[in-house]
TrEMBL record, chain A:
This is Transport permease protein. Coiled coil: none annotated. The chain crosses the membrane at residues 21-39, 59-82, 108-128, 134-155, 167-187, 224-243. It comes from Devosia nanyangense. Belongs to the ABC-2 integral membrane protein family. It is found in: Cell inner membrane; Membrane. GO terms for cellular component: ATP-binding cassette (ABC) transporter complex. The keyword Protein transport does not apply. InterPro entries: ABC2_TM, ABC2_TM_bact-type, ABC_2_transport, Nod_factor_ABC_transporter. GO terms for molecular function: ABC-type transporter activity. The lineage of its organism: Bacteria, Pseudomonadati, Pseudomonadota, Alphaproteobacteria, Hyphomicrobiales. Residues 23-246 form the ABC transmembrane type-2 domain. The keyword Membrane applies.
Length: 252, 324
């Protein structure tokens, strides 16, 4: 099985290409910092009155991390459409490389980029006053990486399936908005009306955010932690399945 | 059955696309056999089904019917086996504009298990042989169209495939680069025994490069043979008369049609085209007849049959008309 070798080849090519565009890497890094500095203080002031449990940073940073994982992954599909257009995907499909590796290598690159951004985010939050156990940080980073992987897979799959930016953009936005609004990332869901709370219960990302918040509070034993981690892993499996299915379908 | 020995053996290969509920029969069940070390030209107008056939043989597109053995492996049962042994240069390019040429080549070679040193050596040799020696460190996007086309060819050859598919390899190349590419393709076969299957809609390319030509039109192979064999199918030499005006052309066509063994002349504005068994002999006669009728021909051409004529004879359409 050459899956790992092929994934590594695809990954290193993609990584090299990303690093050749240092401006984009930098802008990517700036985004979470902007959130922290421009939105964090706002939350600081309303945290107490708004119904969040725990220290404002412990509430806010998990939300930002989950958001980073989701949005960092969701938009990568545009890149793979460009690669399809230039013929790179087809060229790789005609090599003996495993189909799945062609998408997994790219997703792995996205995971690395997103993880670096997450580390910067957490570092900056620490400077601003975030205090959490080291174990919580590790679980946080793992969750971000898992979410990034899942959404990168999904976005790449949609990109390859549609081969059109005009189709991907509205699809991604339609997917992102309810995920964000029903996740309690920006405001806690317990101040929402009943029907909205029930709706948000069906949103896996709400549970993932809550899991991370529990961890950041130090409640490692809270069962929500497991639920969150398992949900994240399930999403990665779903994404990988979609990605590999879509890629195989290209030769159908 | 010649199945065991041949490089490509396809039977009843078929591909129907579904687009917006409509079925497009791009390839309608073709049989083809390519021997080891052969250079086969796949010739046909736009939309004939060349790319579709190539993609099927390269495992990029599942046939909707038929079967094929490519480089010793069954297309459906062992597609990885096929991919290991073939190279494919797509009509549409293969590199990212932001990527560096050398890195793109080496990364591609890795998929075939070629180590970086060998890949670099081979890549630079191939680039040099296609007149691209100084581009290793440049980005693909900074190359000209023709240079980028040649880079695609280098990518497709990096693993020394036993069988290489080239989809319109010389599109966008200037005459010198084309001639150079032809030399390289012949050398591939002569020195490495590579089997080459290339599509083109250039007559001269198919003519001068191929050992054998398959002519495809509308998803079916309409003729097959060596360039010489195919040309023999056309009835003799082509005579092209250019006249001063259309009435003259009409009269000239009538006169020319009476020549011994002539086919029905085709009139196209001021130009009359016809075929005769022996152009050299017919011409003086024809000119004398025209003079007697008071018609003044302003141009006369006698041509040995070209593949274009073959295509015209076989399909009733000219290849050249469809080349834009
Ligand atoms: N993905 C597709 N979906 C629907 N129809 C297609 C698709 N690809 C090709 N076709 C159609 O199939 C037919 C054959 O196309 P193909 O690309 O094989 O032609 P070709 O001989 O390579 O032409 P060209 O010289 O222009 O490259 C055309 O009518 C084309 O419109
Ligand atoms: Mg084509």
């Amino acid at each position: 099985m050459y899956f790992f070798r092929d994934t590594w080849i695809v990954f290193s090519r993609s990584m090299r290409l990303s690093l050749r565009q240092p401006l984009w890497v930098l802008i990517g890094l700036l985004q979470p910092i902007l959130y922290l500095t421009l939105f964090g203080p706002l939350l600081q002031n309303i945290a107490a009155s708004s119904g969040f449990v725990g220290d404002a940073w412990q509430v806010f940073v998990p939300g930002l991390l989950v958001q980073l994982g989701i949005f960092g992954g969701l938009f990568v599909g545009f890149g793979i459409i460009a690669e399809w257009r230039s013929g790179v995907i087809e060229r790789q499909l005609v090599t003996p490389a495993s189909r799945t590796s062609i998408i997994t290598g790219r997703t792995l690159r996205d995971v690395v980029v997103i993880s670096v951004q997450a580390i910067v985010l957490v570092g900056a939050a620490y400077l601003l006053g975030l205090r959490v156990p080291a174990g919580a940080l590790i679980i946080g980073l793992v969750l971000v990486a898992l979410l990034g992987a899942a959404f990168s897979f999904i976005s790449n799959a949609i990109g390859i399936a549609t081969k059109s930016e005009d189709a991907l953009a509205p699809l991604v936005n339609t997917l992102a908005l309810p995920i964000l609004l029903l996740s309690g990332i920006l405001l806690p869901m317990n101040i929402a009306p009943r029907w909205l709370q029930i709706a948000s219960d069906f949103n896996p990302f709400k549970h993932i955010v809550e899991a991370l918040r529990a961890v950041f509070r130090g409640d490692f034993a809270d069962p929500i932690v497991w639920i969150g981690v398992v949900l994240a892993i399930a999403l990665v499996v779903l994404g990988a399945w979609m990605g590999s299915r879509t890629l195989s379908a290209q030769t159908k | 059955m010649t199945g065991m020995g041949s490089m490509i053996e396809a039977r009843g290969l078929k591909r129907t696309y579904k687009a917006r509920g409509k079925a497009i029969e791009a390839v309608r069940g073709i049989d083809l056999t390519v021997q080891h070390g052969e250079i086969v030209g796949f010739l046909g107008p736009n939309g004939a089904g060349k790319t579709t056939t190539l993609k099927m043989l390269c495992t990029l597109l599942e046939p909707t019917g038929g079967s094929a053995t490519v480089a010793g492996s069954d297309l459906r049962q062992d597609s990885v086996g096929v991919r290991r042994k073939i190279g494919y240069v797509s009509q549409a390019g293969s590199t990212s504009p932001e990527a560096v040429v050398g890195e793109e080549i080496m990364s591609h070679a890795q998929f075939y298990g070629i180590d970086r040193a060998t890949a670099k050596q081979r890549g630079q040799d191939l680039l040099a042989s296609l007149d691209l020696s100084d581009v290793w460190g440049r980005t693909c996007g900074s190359l000209s169209g023709g240079q980028r086309r040649r880079l695609d060819i280098v990518m497709g050859l990096i693993h020394k495939p036993a069988l290489v598919f080239l989809d319109e390899p010389s599109t966008g190349l200037d005459p010198q680069s084309r001639a150079n590419l032809w030399t390289h393709i012949r050398k591939l076969r002569d020195e490495l025994g590579t089997t080459v299957f290339l599509t083109t809609h250039y007559m001269d390319e198919a003519d001068s490069l191929s050992d054998r030509i398959l002519i495809i039109d509308n998803g079916t192979i309409v003729a097959e043979g060596t360039p010489a064999e195919l040309k023999k199918r056309v009835s003799g030499d082509a005579i092209t008369l250019t006249l001063r005006n259309e009435p003259d052309a009409a009269s000239a066509a009538e006169i020319a049609g009476k020549l011994d063994g002539a086919d029905a002349p085709v009139v196209d504005a001021h130009v009359v085209r016809l075929h005769v068994p022996d152009g050299g002999r017919a011409l003086p006669l024809l000119l004398a007849e025209l003079t007697r009728a008071g018609i003044d021909a302003i141009g006369v051409d006698v041509n040995r049959p070209t593949l274009d004529d073959v295509f015209l004879t076989l399909t009733g359409r000219s290849l050249r008309d469809q080349e834009i």
